[in-house]
Amino acid sequence: MFSLPRLVVCGSQRESPELAKQPVILVTGPYLAEEARQHAEAAGYTVSHTPSYPTPDVLVEHIQRLDPVGVVARMGQFGAEAMAVGRSLKVVSKHGAGVDNIDVEAATRHGVQVIRAAGGNAVSVAEHAVALMFATVKRLLPLDGGMRQGRWEKAEFLGRELSGMRLGLVGGGAIAAAVARIVQGMGLEVAVYDPYASTESITALGAQHIEDIETLLARSDIVSLHCPLTDANAHLLNAKTLALMPENSYVVNTSRGGLIDEKALMAALESGHIAGAGLDTFEREPPEGINPLAASERVILTPHIAGVTEEAGTRVGVLAVSGIVDFIAGKALPPARLVNSTAETTCL
């Protein structure tokens, strides 16, 4: 163990000579939970940071200058260029579960292990998904906006009850399970589509197992997405699949923005076929200017912060950092945390 002086390296700041002697863990973004930082420092590592959403050039510059042995991938893309310049880079640890912002293929070519910190933010994301359901179905934002503009819209308002609605969850992992636990106490009927989950695991949640996505969409008053983004399911919700949903149904997405064709969703909202949407993730993050969906009062948008709570940040941060420390120390990680296999690869 090393006793390290307290210093946070952020942006383009230079490290002191004393800190530069220690192996570096680079965090893509300006924040890491204090408990996670302490875990890294107690193991003899210096924690450094990039700015928020670093460009490829900024990320490459930080890796060339700092020569990290591990990276905690939080904000922005971690692409092939960054992998290629990592002279000492051994492991990229996702600050969360989804690794669509990491070039896993490039990591494998360069012998870099990619790991994930799944499950640590499940409760926080589930709570946010349910909050979006409530706010969207109950039309809280437009009603609040009307009050702030001096309108009393009681006479023309007719709301809906969530109790008795059919909720369709796409994905049956830890976040979906937490959503199911929350909403079942409120009277929602829950069904799950997950081609990788067993019927037994779904029924254990108190939910119905649906074997195809088309059936789930057709029977759901609310569809909530809780699956990773892959090449196979990009634009899972598009003009064709949105049309399968019942009239006046709702869409919630706290997973990955690329799962939804935003132009098709906007068209479905404008036609009235989709009654509302609660979105925490988007096809482009951060957006260039204002996302066009913001023009619809039927949509609630939040900036990919469903899992950004103090509690989740600590759990995920410690998982991400401890994964780096343990991997470099030669300790075995649970197979579910390993994204790729580097056993037979050679660094280029």
UniProtKB/TrEMBL annotation:
InterPro entries: D-2-hydroxyacid_DH, D-isomer_2_OHA_DH_cat_dom, D-isomer_DH_CS, D-isomer_DH_NAD-bd, NAD(P)-bd_dom_sf. It comes from the Bacteria. Residues 26-333 form the D-isomer specific 2-hydroxyacid dehydrogenase catalytic domain. SUPFAM superfamilies: Formate/glycerate dehydrogenase catalytic domain-like (SSF52283), NAD(P)-binding Rossmann-fold domains (SSF51735). Residues 130-306 form the D-isomer specific 2-hydroxyacid dehydrogenase NAD-binding domain. Belongs to the D-isomer specific 2-hydroxyacid dehydrogenase family. GO terms for molecular function: NAD binding; oxidoreductase activity, acting on the CH-OH group of donors, NAD or NADP as acceptor. CDD domains: PGDH_4. The lineage of its organism: Bacteria, Pseudomonadati, Pseudomonadota, Gammaproteobacteria, Oceanospirillales. Pfam families: 2-Hacid_dh, 2-Hacid_dh_C. The keyword Cell inner membrane does not apply. It comes from Kushneria avicenniae. Keywords: NAD, Oxidoreductase. This is D-3-phosphoglycerate dehydrogenase.
